[in-house]
TrEMBL record:
UniProt source species: Desulfurobacterium indicum
Keyword Membrane on entry: yes
One Pfam family matching this protein: Abhydrolase_6
Protein name as catalogued: AB hydrolase-1 domain-containing protein
Keyword field contains DNA repair: no
InterPro entries cross-referenced by the UniProt entry: AB_hydrolase_1, AB_hydrolase_fold
TM helices/strands, residue ranges: 58-75
Domain AB hydrolase-1 stretches: 5-122
Keywords: Membrane, Transmembrane, Transmembrane helix
Amino acid sequence: MVYTIHGWSFNKDIWMKTPFANAFHLELPGHGNSPLQITNIYEVAKKFGKSIKSSSTVVGWSIGASVAILMAVYFPEKINKLILYSPTPLFCGMSQPEVICKRFLKKLSRDFETTVTWFRKECGFSDIYPLPDKDKAIKLLESYMNLDLRNIIPEVFVKTDIIVGLKDEVTKLSGAFCCFSLFPFSSIKIFPDKFHFLF
């Protein structure tokens, strides 16, 4: 079974024109039609992990990649493979300076719609897309910004494919390479003309 986890401010529809269109799509709290009320990224990963079947492949993009990694930590017996698009083990402090993270959260609180629209353009995405729930989306992002996977990833012994765009200015090439260096069994593929949004 293949499961997908989208990126922040998007929903399952990003997978519709990809090879994973027929997968089972997990939606983050506050995004799409997700019924989840929890916004702690660790608890989200546990909830998702409990719902998947054994011998699964989990495909995650950006924050979804981090959730997928945590799922593999909590439920190693259920996951055979990870496919991670634009991952980073540490968003604030590696992919982005902490001051930028704090400024972004402030902008979201002041003008959520404008800030989300700007963020999507930074990702390389320009289509019209429904907004997530403001409160849940911000709380989830805060949880993600406090996440550090550098000591966790070396304990993930599943085959892992990492895909990243050379022009990614969100989680950046450095984030993907750090993941690549930490996973015991991983490969990396770089697309020279792609941004954070790869699909």
